[in-house]
Amino acid sequence: MELKEKIDELKDYLSQYERLEQAIGIIYWDMRTNIPSKAGESRGKVLEYLSSEAFKMITSPKVGEFINDLTPYKDEMNKVEQRILQELEKNYNETKKIPQDRYVEYVGLCSNSEIAWEKAKDASDFEIFKPYLEKVVEFQKEFINYWGYKNNKYDTLLDKYELGLTTEKLDKIFSELKDGIIEVLNKVKGSKKKLNRDFLYGHFDEGKQKELSLFILEKIGFDMEAGRLDVSVHPFTTNFGNKDVRLTTNYHEDEFTSALFSTIHEGGHGIYEQNISDDLESTGLQQGASMAIHESQSRFYENILGRSKEFCSYLLPVAKEYFSDFKDVTLDEFYEAMNYVETSLIRTEADELTYGLHIIIRYEIEKELINGRITVNELKDTWNKKYKEYLGVEPKNDAEGILQDMHWSDGSFGYFPSYALGNLYGAQMFNTLLKEKPNVMEEVKNGNLTDITKWLNEKVHVHGAIYTPEELIKNITGEELNAKYFIDYLKNKYYSLYDVE
Ligand code: CO
């Protein structure tokens, strides 16, 4: 059979699989945004059923046949076809190694575990969530045994989110990052200059915040005709193809920045998904290059752009139209408030400088947990100790400590490092952007982000998962990923903000 015919047949099969995945995705979205609390259990059963159908499709002997039939043609294939095959093989092998009954049980567990996490967080009681988390961790360990590992069990989980990433590589990058952050943080702490952000607290009507969020989303390039914005406990983005990209945010009426920056962050994820090429439909490649590359886009919009002086210069007059609280605030004051540094307890509310430390804490904990060097029982103490040691703060309750993130409830171990790597990828790309288009930030003052978004579209978004993260960053910047650009960026920005050098 000819290569083209075989590829078309595969695409046809993948399009059916994608439809099923989209149905599952809509149910997940609904569970996290709109579902009545009593409906959780029965919806979990719907998910169990559909997931087992998806499992059957991806582990079917038919997929094995596709792989066998296509492999001899590898050298004749173009880049896209090669990556389709590579991703298909990865997905097939990862899924096939798990016995179906274990997989179905795991999916059911995760949906109950998410509900338990929400209850536990509301009650600020880790004990409610603990039995579920114990089971989720046991499943992770069981899966790693099916998948196999070389040096470190945690490597197997890292590789799921960032192809080829290992604890060995990450230990090195994170130790450089940690040293860099601490160096800047110590100078900031020692500075005589104190920034003020009191005016960001007060009463900010939820309706007006929503209007502002929607306005800014469109401004940065998110297409509201191919997406929407809703509310959930933990903001997230999900999508069903590139024409239905759904973001969520979370409004706090006593504070100005939280919802706005959550929206911009999720908007960055959304812009990525909306701009992936239509040609990649039904190939398995119509998705981000990796979770960290995805985070590089969201964090680029949120921080590098959203918290830049140029963007603040555009945002302040707009914010004044919505909220009279900012009537007398100057640009310098606004910019300083947006970049106020404070070691704190909540990752998602952390400033750009100390954020990486929150991730390093989670990385170290996950590595120990997955390798069986600490138990779920010891988790809370370990967490609290590390927060004291790295950030000098201690949670007063579980909600602002161990229960703050939902990631462990659905088994996303290995995901957290993506956030910090996203910062590094983003800063490295920004460095190249400024070399290629030196005046690009000037336009941002006028609220014109077109050039930046276009550059990211061309360099990153349109390619979906055609390139691995390693290839992509090399194509764009000519270098491998390294922490240098992000640390330099932090130094430039925060030394000037805090008058230190
Ligand atoms: Co994100």
Summed up, the helix count is: 20
At the first level of CATH, the class of the domain at 167-497 is Mainly Alpha
Could you name the CATH topology of the domain at 167-497? Neurolysin, domain 3
Q: What portion of the residues fall into strands of 2 or more residues?
A: under 5%
Largest sheet: spatial strand order: 1-3-2
How many strands appear in the DSSP assignment? Answer: 3
CATH-level-2 architecture of the domain at 167-497: Orthogonal Bundle
Query: Which hetero ligands occur in this complex?
Result: cobalt (II) ion
What is the rounded distance between the termini?
66 Å
Provide the succession of SSEs.
HHHHHHHHHEEEHHHHHHHHHHH
What's the alpha carbon Rg, rounded to whole Å? 23 Å
- The low-confidence runs, each spanning 5 or more residues with pLDDT under 50, are none
The gross shape turns out to be globular
Walkthrough of the structure:
By secondary structure, the protein is mainly α. It has a domain at 167-497: Neurolysin, domain 3 (Orthogonal Bundle), CATH 1.10.1370. Helix content is 63%, strand content 3%. It has helices at residues 3-33, 40-59, 61-70, 79-96, 100-123, 126-147, 153-161, 167-190, 206-220, 257-274, 291-305, 309-322, 331-338, 355-370, 379-391, 417-436, 440-444, 450-459, 469-477, 484-497; strands at 227-231, 237-239, 245-249. Strands 1-3-2 form a 3-stranded mixed β-sheet, with helices on both faces. Helix 8 packs parallel to helix 20 (484-497), helix 9 packs parallel to helix 10 and helix 16 packs across helix 20. The site of cobalt (II) ion (CO) has 4 residues, from helix 10 and helix 11.
